């Protein structure tokens, strides 16, 4: 069960093992949004995203026999590197099952952290392969449907609250929902007046669709460029967390997301992936509601973007200078 005590325990476990990422005020983004805007630079975390928080917290709770058996995870994105990094730090053998469509830079980075990579035709086949490995004795580290993983991700909110206790609103990306589940609970427990806004992109909006349907919805395909938000469906745990602790979920387009990505790059000099840039796009949609002195945090949850991705986005969305 996900509790505030579990998040506080995760903070203690992770102390000194990962970066305490900076929270910086951005004058440029504040001017654009008409509010007092801060960026939580989790894109500067180990492996380039928040994912090692949950993976390492989970792995630190394993028994010696469980560590000896090795761990397996499914991911075509940042969770793969988070688990691989945690395994390398703790001397635990890791196997990552990835769909064949996984970009080369993610494959290379995951192998670079020492993981064994197994490729499957698609994400559903990847989960089936990993489940078979789990039945053979390995420990599965789920990307979001695990209270210990979500508790680790929730430590991001504890850092924000320590640096900016009076935060009024926080925008958080949603893939499977583990990050916003942990952060939402932390904010609700410590500063309940903080408004937590979830963000998805069209074509990777399993949470928004589940909320609208009143039950889990499985997307037939992920069509958004925000690959790291591409969970085919969320879980009962994360869906309930969003119902309980999140004010709303905003869905933005790929074009709005790429515009936000280039704005962040040009105005703050931070290179972030679409799954992080979408939070600025969502804030842009809501800026008419902001007060001039409102303290808003944009969580930039990942920065794993290749140069070829950047060039491709610029061409596809016609953002190259004339």
TrEMBL record:
Keywords: Lyase, Pyridoxal phosphate. Its cofactor is pyridoxal 5'-phosphate. Residues 19-302 form the Tryptophan synthase beta chain-like PALP domain. InterPro entries: Ser/Thr_Dehydratase, TrpB-like_PALP, TrpB-like_PALP_sf. It comes from the Bacteria. GO terms for molecular function: L-serine ammonia-lyase activity; threonine deaminase activity. This is Tryptophan synthase beta chain-like PALP domain-containing protein.
């Amino acid at each position: 069960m996900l509790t505030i005590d579990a998040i506080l325990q995760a903070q203690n476990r992770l102390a000194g093992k990962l970066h305490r990422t900076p929270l910086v005020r951005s004058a440029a983004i504040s001017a654009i949004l008409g509010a007092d805007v801060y960026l939580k630079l989790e894109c500067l975390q180990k492996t380039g995203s928040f994912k090692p928080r949950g993976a390492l917290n989970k792995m630190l709770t394993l028994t010696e026999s469980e560590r000896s058996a090795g761990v397996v995870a499914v991911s075509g994105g940042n969770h793969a590197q988070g688990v691989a990094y945690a395994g390398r730090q703790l001397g635990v053998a890791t196997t990552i099952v990835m769909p064949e469509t996984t970009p080369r830079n993610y494959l290379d980075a995951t192998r670079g952290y020492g993981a064994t990579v197994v490729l499957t035709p698609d994400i559903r086949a990847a989960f089936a392969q990993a489940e078979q490995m789990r039945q053979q004795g390995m420990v599965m580290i789920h990307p979001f449907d695990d209270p210990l993983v979500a508790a680790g991700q929730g430590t991001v909110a504890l850092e924000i609250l320590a640096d900016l206790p009076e935060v009024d609103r926080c925008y958080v990306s949603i893939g499977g929902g583990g990050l916003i589940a942990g952060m939402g609970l932390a904010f609700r427990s410590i500063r309940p007046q903080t408004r937590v806004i979830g963000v998805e992109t069209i074509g990777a909006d399993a949470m928004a669709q589940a909320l609208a349907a009143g039950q889990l919805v499985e997307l037939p395909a992920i069509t958004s460029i925000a690959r790291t938000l591409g969970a085919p469906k969320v879980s009962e745990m994360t869906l309930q967390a969003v119902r309980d602790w999140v004010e709303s979920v905003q869905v933005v387009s790929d074009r709005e997301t790429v515009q936000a990505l280039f704005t962040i790059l040009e105005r703050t000099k931070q290179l972030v992936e679409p799954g992080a840039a979408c939070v600025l796009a969502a804030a842009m949609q809501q800026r008419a509601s902001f007060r001039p002195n409102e303290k808003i945090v944009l969580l930039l949850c990942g920065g794993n973007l290749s140069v070829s991705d950047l060039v491709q986005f610029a061409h596809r969305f016609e953002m190259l200078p004339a």
